[in-house]
Automatic annotation (TrEMBL):
<keyword id="KW-0648">Protein biosynthesis</keyword>
<feature type="domain" description="Translation elongation factor EFTu-like">
    <location>
        <begin position="125"/>
        <end position="190"/>
    </location>
</feature>
<dbReference type="InterPro" id="IPR027417">
    <property type="entry name" value="P-loop_NTPase"/>
</dbReference>
<dbReference type="GO" id="GO:0005525">
    <property type="term" value="F:GTP binding"/>
</dbReference>
<dbReference type="GO" id="GO:0005737">
    <property type="term" value="C:cytoplasm"/>
</dbReference>
<dbReference type="Pfam" id="PF00009">
    <property type="entry name" value="GTP_EFTU"/>
</dbReference>
<dbReference type="InterPro" id="IPR000795">
    <property type="entry name" value="T_Tr_GTP-bd_dom"/>
</dbReference>
<keyword id="KW-0597">Phosphoprotein</keyword>
<feature type="domain" description="GTP-eEF1A C-terminal">
    <location>
        <begin position="205"/>
        <end position="243"/>
    </location>
</feature>
<dbReference type="Pfam" id="PF03144">
    <property type="entry name" value="GTP_EFTU_D2"/>
</dbReference>
<protein>
    <submittedName>
        <fullName>Elongation factor 1-alpha</fullName>
    </submittedName>
</protein>
<keyword id="KW-0342">GTP-binding</keyword>
<dbReference type="InterPro" id="IPR009000">
    <property type="entry name" value="Transl_B-barrel_sf"/>
</dbReference>
<feature type="domain" description="Tr-type G">
    <location>
        <begin position="1"/>
        <end position="102"/>
    </location>
</feature>
<dbReference type="InterPro" id="IPR050100">
    <property type="entry name" value="TRAFAC_GTPase_members"/>
</dbReference>
<keyword id="KW-0547">Nucleotide-binding</keyword>
<dbReference type="GO" id="GO:0003746">
    <property type="term" value="F:translation elongation factor activity"/>
</dbReference>
Length: 244
């Protein structure tokens, strides 16, 4: 899971060492330190800095160190993390969660909205649905859908049945578009601003690939199916440049 998280760009990590009530003896400091040492070594190899990761001994079943400090682990003096944004410390899991730094929303980047679905709603028309990844979507914008190259105006933007003046990264929205039928759009297309760095299809690209598990051999000419945001499309490894 740690490798998957790092691969997907998750920068911050908390390690909750659960089932402390089931150690031998129960709530064993030695067992916690053993796990902490082992996991620290592993996540360091992946790319995380263990000094910036909170390790919290917990028992989800009994609620120890979840919301408040547990009397059953007097040896645990609390967790502390050091990172370039500053230090943080605490005693329990909820404090570690509160110490997570919220990510900045990339509103200044060009609009990219991969379509999850397209609906035809009576009395309204064609409504593509998806999550804003970067940029800002506003009513009145002229958007282009890649790779089809269709251009149209956004009549309105809604989230949870409420009209929005703008949608920002992280928002799951539906937006009504003019003069485009449901059949012309599909899941996997990407909407962007036609006037500011619109999205385009790519004939090829360079990717860093992490192989978690594979039964055969991967070589030049290998043809996997690629899932990129909501797109699901066959591609080919033209050339393997290097192994890290």
């Amino acid at each position: 899971h740690a490798l998957l998280a790092f691969t997907l760009g998750v920068k911050q990590l908390i390690v909750g060492v659960n089932k402390m009530d089931s150690t031998e003896p129960p709530y064993s400091e030695g067992r916690f330190e053993e796990i902490k040492k082992e996991v620290s070594s592993y996540i360091k190899k992946i790319g995380y800095n263990p000094a910036a990761v909170a390790f919290v001994p917990i028992s989800g079943w009994h609620g120890d160190n979840m919301l408040e400090s547990s009397e059953k682990m007097p040896w645990f003096k609390g967790w502390a993390v050091e990172r370039k944004e500053g230090k943080a410390d605490g005693k329990c899991l909820i404090e570690a969660l509160d110490a997570i730094l919220p990510p900045s929303r990339p509103t200044e980047k060009p609009l990219r909205l991969p379509l999850q679905d397209v609906y035809k709603i009576g009395g309204i028309g064609t409504v593509p649905v998806g999550r804003v990844e970067t940029g800002v979507l506003k009513p009145g914008m002229v958007v282009v859908f890649a790779p089809a190259g269709l251009t149209t105006e956004v009549k309105s933007v809604e989230m949870h049945h409420e009209a929005l003046q703008e949608a920002v990264p992280g928002d799951n929205v539906g937006f009504n578009v003019k003069n485009v039928s449901v059949k012309e759009l599909r899941r996997g297309y990407v909407a962007g601003d036609s006037k500011a760095s619109p999205p385009r299809g790519a004939a090829d690209f360079i990717a860093q690939v992490i192989v978690l598990n594979h039964p055969g051999q991967i070589s030049n000419g290998y043809t996997p199916v690629l899932d990129c945001h909501t797109a699901h499309i066959a591609c080919k490894f033209a050339e393997i440049k290097e192994k890290c």
